[in-house]
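Field: COMPLEX_INPUT
Field: COMPONENT_COUNT = two
Field: RESIDUE_TOTAL = 576
Field: MODE = joint
Values follow.
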Amino acid sequence: MLIDFIKGLAVTFKHIWKKPVTFNYPEVKRPQPAFYRGRHRLQRYSNGLERCVACALCAAVCPPEAIYLEAEENDPKRPVGAGERYARLYQIHQIRCIWCGFCEEACPEDAIVMGPIFEMANYKRSDFVCNKEQMLDAPDKGFGEPIVLKVNQPL
Amino acid sequence: MSRLLIENIIFAVKIVVIFGAVLTAVPFMVLLERVLIARIQQRVGPNRVGLDFIPGLGFLKGKFIIGGILQAFIDGAKLFLKEEVRVRAVDPVLWRIAPLITLVPAIMILAIVPFGPPIGLNIFGDWYKIPLAITDLEVGILFYLAVTGVAVYGIVLAGYSSNSKYSLIGGIRSSAQMISYEIALSLSLVGVLLIAGSFSLSRLIGIQSEGVWNWNIWKQPIGAALFLIAGFAESNRLPFDLPEGESELGAGFHTEYSSMKFAMFFMAEYMNMFSYSAILTTLFLGGFYGPIPLPASVYAMIDQPIFGIVSGVGSAVIGVFWFSVKVFLLVCLFVWIRGTLPRFRYDQLMDLGWKVMLPAALVNMVVTAAVIALVAKPISAAPTPDGPALTIALLVAGVVQVVAIDRILTARKRRILGHAH
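Field: COMPLEX_OUTPUT
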């Protein structure tokens, strides 16, 4: 009985010398795994054209109907996207979104993927409606290759 | 100036210095507890309010302990500035004095604790011997027991006068707990008193001088353990914090208190922790004596009068140092046990108090008395350590008791749980 007590004390004593598992949050952010389903990203090809072809499969598959998009024909002289059509308006309501990742799976072009950003607090409800400009990758960043999920990647 | 006046001034200065030092230590104890508990739970702990606002010290930002060194002061300032909420249904007089009744005894205990060996002071050509304790009462231990007995009234009255069900349950629990553990606490000290033959703390320390092998913990292992456990119960610390019991009683007896009145309860808890550590150090861990005594020639050298004004500074510094180290380690033990054990259930608490600790204290008392009678210890006039014969006899008796208690507890556990473990 007393031995058990000493064993318990030994366990906590060992923990004192271990590295803390928590982070100094605002300065140090927890690294997210590659498969983390954070805020959506709209990817581009390496030449700067958007991958989205405005097929609306994501909007169709979305369980809480959080995605709204309006398609438009691409101007061949000054194309925005790589396909025939592109999304003129692409909105995701982040309060309605349940972060299931179905949009990512449904997308035939790997255009919408979910990224590592998890800080999405805002002051107004209307600010939670995320526009295309907020989600689109920078034009000079090429993401030509399809996303490969690395499931067992260490954190 | 007359000698009496100067002695009274010295007395007042001692009170102010000791009181100030200990009150300043309380915020650091809070910080120590928060940091240690965080490390036990593998968290980072408080590191936001540090010294990094001072230009040039920015590199300290977020560093372990140093990064949060001011946290405790900020918490204190917050409590000062908080609005005080007073419920109309409380009993106004009792409700106001209850925090004081809790805090004052916790501080009063420090009046009898010797922090170091006496120093000499030369004032206007006269030498004064100043013991580094506020007083050296002949009945120090009785004073201590009497004062700790008063502390429970604060908690009970807080619970009663708050006119709240949770507070009342907390107060009732507290009174039941104190009654159960006060007896074991008092009886656990009897062994030490038998060995010392006196209630005086200076004598109790005197018999523990000249090395770690003379400390009372070897003669009274059961007494020390029971005193420590009862100390947890008396200072309402985990695993005996049933009067507070956040998960079941809100905050227990101090549910209805806010601002500085709450801060008084909070301070009382930490002062109690400090006082218990100080008394435990004095009674069982050799007080201000170091584990290995320095040769007399070294003491003669470092205790030389400095500028003909003060003497004995060297041994006083060493004494205060060892006393602080021991108290610090005991406070760490308090926190460590808080980080390890869960809260006791009420019936387990009563069970431990009445069926384990009280019999163990009684047996320890009888065994100690028998051993002292057998070894035929003479009560010497001067407080000097006893020979090794008594220590060895009592140590053997103590180990036998520890093994017996362990066996009995294990058998009880098996019987209660109903299957072999």
